[in-house]
Amino acid sequence: MADGTVKTWKDLDRFVKEVYGSPGKDLYDRYVALIEGFKEKYGKAPEIIGRSPGRVNLIGEHIDYEGYSVLPMAIKQDTIVAISESGDDKVHVANLRSGFSEEDFDIDPAALVADTVNHSWVNYVMAAYIGACQYAGQRPTRGLNILVEGQVPHGSGLSSSAALVCSTALALTEVLGVSAPQAEVAQFTAECEKFVGTESGGMDQAISIMGELGMAKLVHFHPIRTEDVTLPDGAIFVIANSLAVSQKAVSAAKQYNLRVVECRLAAALLGLRLGVSKDKARELRTLREVEDLVREKWNGPKGSVMGAESEVVRKLLDKKVYTHGELEKELDMELEDMFAGNPSQLASIKAAHDRDVGGFNLRDRAMHVYSEAARVLEFKAACDSPTLTSEQQLEELARLMDDSHASCRDLYNCSCDELDELVRVCKKAGARGSRLTGAGWGGCTVSLVPQDKVEQFIAEVKREYYMAEVNRKGGLPKEEVKKDGKKVVLWEKDG
Ligand code: NG1
Ligand code: MG
């Protein structure tokens, strides 16, 4: 455990109560299984166990990498990682669950390269290892044995990857003997996940490390910091899995990275049209930086800056799909050269070009980012409002969630048929608001459901979505895990 206080089974019992907010024999047994499994595999007990949860994003999708604040909360489903010294100079990695490869890698972090083509789950462990060693400024003197057990469903938008990276990193900082403040672990884990080839922002790592029981958080970036968000009375968030595995990293252009690239191109074009030099425009990295330019140019527009930005986008970017060639002409540089410094982004540019994914939809992407960033702040303001009744608060949150989904679907094109159908079913079943959560292209939805309608809602979604899916695809949702303390209900289907 990160605070090093669990020495006996009784301590473990207390730890489980503290961390999960409920006694839970199953939770206790899970740690016991990890420890026993570790002994069986490596011949001795682990020295350290790291733990970090998945998350559900309530609002603020695809804006963390643009520098804008997001509003997630941690969920009970988590990853636990047991570690001890090994007798050799390798890092051995195994998983308690079946179906995961067993691999080892060199203890010299400088020697490690991730194979992002034949992607293995161990890449995430490697990423955390590199990040922790860099942060500590040293590597372990001996090799390590590592055993992982994770409960966050994969490709579901609940950030199983951050749970794995963060739990491993937390345990490793202990192994390396550095005491790392939470925000710093969140920062370095966000950076090191790029090693795996996703140009992600820092939301998942921040909330996985800094989340608290019973609390949503407004997460800010540069530097990472959080504000508590107390949700209104009667706010129950229900997570439902569309059972479509998120395709965010699958296509040739890697959908997710392609969005990061489109935002950077939108920023560059907006910069140009706001009158900055071509050199400077090409250096712009995020839409957040454009916000500063807009403020300079209009000398602090009255009202919402974000609102003003959307006006600017509407005026300055055409409602069309920009081609590779057009952008090169405008920016006066080969896109391959402009993105040369970033291999993942460059790969997306090339794949988009080779396969002609239809060009770059800059106006819609920018409109999504600025409007979503504004919705996050409105969501927080509604939660904090001293004048709204909880009924009015819920109404406002629901409206913002619905708008967020529409924007993800229509402007950011990161939804899919299954998610849209599930959102429709959730609304029909009594959700006040419903939206995709996480990267999208599959994965989960999160719905705001009135407290007294939760049971009825679940029954109806099962009937209307899952039974239909079961008939279509075969297989049943396996578990139903209720999270009373933190107002989350999760369905999970293995495999
Ligand atoms: P998920 O849903 O876990 O793939 C991704 C990014 C986040 C954020 C969201 C979209 C990773 C590790 N995380 O989350 O940083 O950009 O998409 O809001 O890629
Ligand atoms: Mg070119």
UniProtKB/TrEMBL annotation:
Is Kinase there in the keyword field? yes
Q: Which domain of life is it from?
A: Eukaryota
Task: List, for all copies, the residue spans of the domain called Galactokinase N-terminal.
Answer: 37-84
Report the residue ranges that make up the GHMP kinase C-terminal domain in this protein.
391-466
Domain named GHMP kinase N-terminal: residues: 123-211
UniProt entry keywords in alphabetical sequence: ATP-binding, Kinase, Nucleotide-binding, Transferase
Task: Spell out the InterPro entries in the cross-references.
Answer: Galactokinase (IPR000705), Galactokinase_CS (IPR019741), GalKase_N (IPR019539), GHMP_kinase_C_dom (IPR013750), GHMP_kinase_C_sf (IPR036554), GHMP_kinase_N_dom (IPR006204), GHMP_knse_ATP-bd_CS (IPR006203), Mevalonate/galactokinase (IPR006206)
UniProt xrefs under NCBIfam families: gal_kin
What PANTHER family has UniProt attached to this entry? Answer: GALACTOKINASE-RELATED, MEVALONATE KINASE/GALACTOKINASE
Hey, which family's this protein in?
Answer: Belongs to the GHMP kinase family. GalK subfamily.
**Protein name per the record:** Galactokinase
Source organism (scientific name): Coccomyxa subellipsoidea
